[in-house]
């Protein structure tokens, strides 16, 4: 019962039939977080999408090889080649080292993935700082092939030597040249040139710096993704994802570096998640617009309600955040859970017609909103309760909404929040905290049992 998979490819701006490089396997790279702060829920939209993509392939019988990198060096505050390293700045603000904050926010990021029930079994999480030699080697290849030049602050990629440079993002390079008369860095030959290796500032000791053939410094932001994807997946690989902000700079530069170094295509399918916006514009990691999963939990909104809310819109549409919208999604999700629980405990036959319809929608550029609509339609249909239970269980393999972990009793939000916190503590192997939370839950009249990677709560 397999169907073809179609994906919208940013490279061609069309929906294309997915053809794997190796039969039955898919290799995917997802640009990961810069770990100078917590992830906001906009960032997390990118990883819920990556998870649904992975689950869709797994549902279709593919073996998935997946990488989410951890950017712990080199991403400058301007997103270009000027300004301070975000890590270094974050560390200074907190009075810690860049190494310290990288650890803290990487752990927090992985906790967020766990709370959203994002599958990470087998996923590689390479840190940029652990692949410095690979990045240096890649810059050396580009240097030998004549694509680089040196300025007083680093080694740069000469984008005029890659004639296809503007194609991916449909950049107006000529317009950019005219508009760039007052360049911050007047040693750059072209405004689109970018740093491959930056020199540590003179008279300043950075927390993170390494020896290189060009002097002490640190890698540019883009080179890490080219080096780590080559090392862990090989090129070309099948799918590369990220937010749409990455199209004109980060991914354009990754393509330039990788294709000039290897002489062949870097990635077959590029997929980009549109932005989660707040009323004043895009969600950012600073200011009032900075909403984390914890911010939702503080308002008794569960991470799964956020996941459900994301699934109700297409990844290629911009979504507008409001607490009211996510609260309404939580109410809808609880209604679905309620319906599921009313089906009882007996498993009937999986409704293959419904599964096939949902598969066709998912395989049509990951149309989760259509699948959610089918779920609502189906639970109201006249199929038997037993079949409905079996069918929803099957669908949940791809939705990841944890239907089977729900229990009949109406569990108060407060208890659910404690159980979620305890699940996190257990994932962190923080047994003392887990025991403390269990005692708290029990003192409030409920018991909690661990099952697979979830829990069951019952009234005592
Ligand atoms: P960063 O931690 O800033 O490097 O970003 C991590 C991922 O989140 C990248 O794929 C970004 O493109 C994506 N991203 C950043 N802001 C948003 C947003 N408001 N909505 C959706 N995705 C975002
Ligand atoms: Zn990247």
Query: Which strands sit side by side, in order, in the main sheet?
Result: 4-3-9-10
The geometry reads as globular
Small-molecule components bound: adenosine monophosphate, zinc ion
The radius of gyration over CA amounts to 24 Å
How confident overall, as mean pLDDT? 93
Task: Bin the helical content.
Answer: 40-55%
What is the terminal-to-terminal distance? 44 Å
Q: State the low-pLDDT regions, or none.
A: none
User: How many separate domains?
Assistant: 3
- Number of DSSP strands? 15
Q: Which CATH architecture of the largest domain would you pick?
A: 3-Layer(aba) Sandwich
Classified in CATH, the superfamily of the largest domain is HUPs
What's the story with the biggest beta sheet?
4 strands, parallel
What series of H and E elements makes up the topology?
EEEHEHHHEEHEEHEHEEEHHEHHHHHHEE
Number of helices: 15
CATH topology-level name of the largest domain? Rossmann fold
Explained architecture:
This protein has helices at 41-59, 86-94, 98-115, 132-144, 173-179, 221-233, 247-262, 293-298, 303-311, 323-342, 352-362, 368-379, 385-399, 413-427, 431-443; strands at 6-9, 14-17, 25-30, 63-68, 148-151, 154-157, 194-199, 217-219, 237-243, 267-273, 276-278, 281-282, 319-320, 446-451, 454-459. The protein is an alpha/beta fold and 460 residues long. The chain folds into 3 domains: 6-277, Rossmann fold, CATH 3.40.50.620; 323-405, Up-down Bundle (Four Helix Bundle (Hemerythrin (Met), subunit A)); 413-459. Helix 6 (221-233) packs across helix 7 (247-262). The longest helix has 20 residues, at 323-342. Residues 31, 33-34, 42-43, 45-46, 71, 242-243, 245-246, 273, 275-276, 282-283 line the site of adenosine monophosphate. Zinc ion binds next to loops.
């Amino acid at each position: 019962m397999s169907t073809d998979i179609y994906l919208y490819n940013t490279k061609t701006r069309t929906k294309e039939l997915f053809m794997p490089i190796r039969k039955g396997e898919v290799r995917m790279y997802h640009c990961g977080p810069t770990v100078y702060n917590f992830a906001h829920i906009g960032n997390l939209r990118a990883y819920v999408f990556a998870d649904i993509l992975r689950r869709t392939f797994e549902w279709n019988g593919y073996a998935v090889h997946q990488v989410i990198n951890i950017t712990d060096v080199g991403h400058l505050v301007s997103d270009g080649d000027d300004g301070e390293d975000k890590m270094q700045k974050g560390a200074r603000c907190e009075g810690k080292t860049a190494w310290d904050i990288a650890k803290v926010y990487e752990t927090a990021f992985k906790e967020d993935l766990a709370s959203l029930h994002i599958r990470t079994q087998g996923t590689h999480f390479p840190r940029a700082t652990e692949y410095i030699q690979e990045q240096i080697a890649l810059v050396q290849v580009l240097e030998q092939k004549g694509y680089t030049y040196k300025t007083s602050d680093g080694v740069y990629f000469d984008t005029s030597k890659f004639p296809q440079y503007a194609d991916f993002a449909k950049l107006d390079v000529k317009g950019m040249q005219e508009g760039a008369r007052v360049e911050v860095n007047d040693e750059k030959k072209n405004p689109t040139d970018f740093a491959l290796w930056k020199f540590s500032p003179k008279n300043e000791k950075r927390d993170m710096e390494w020896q290189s053939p060009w002097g002490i410094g640190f890698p540019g932001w883009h080179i890490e993704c080219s080096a780590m994807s080559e090392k862990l997946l090989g090129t070309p690989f099948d799918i590369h994802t990220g937010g749409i902000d990455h199209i004109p700079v980060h991914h354009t530069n990754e393509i330039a570096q990788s294709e000039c170094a290897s002489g062949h295509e870097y990635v077959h399918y590029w997929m980009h998640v549109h932005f989660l916006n707040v009323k004043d514009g895009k969600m950012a990691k600073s200011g009032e617009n900075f909403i984390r999963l914890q911010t939702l939990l503080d308002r008794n909104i569960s991470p799964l309600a956020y996941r459900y809310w994301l699934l109700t819109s297409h990844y290629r549409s911009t979504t507008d955040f409001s607490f009211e919208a996510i609260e309404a999604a939580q109410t809808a999700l609880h209604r679905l859970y309620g319906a599921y629980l009313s089906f009882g405990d007996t498993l009937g036959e999986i409704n293959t017609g419904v599964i096939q319809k949902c598969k066709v929608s998912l395989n049509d550029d990951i149309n989760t909103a259509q699948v959610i609509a089918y779920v609502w339609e189906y639970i109201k249909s006249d199929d038997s309760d037993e079949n409905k239970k079996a069918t929803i269980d099957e669908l949940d393999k791809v939705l990841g909404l944890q239907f089977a972990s729900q229990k009949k009793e109406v569990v108060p939000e407060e208890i659910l929040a404690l159980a979620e916190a305890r699940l996190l503590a257990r994932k962190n192997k923080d047994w003392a905290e887990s025991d403390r939370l269990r005692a708290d839950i029990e003192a409030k009249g409920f018991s909690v049992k661990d099952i697979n990677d979830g829990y069951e709560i019952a009234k005592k």
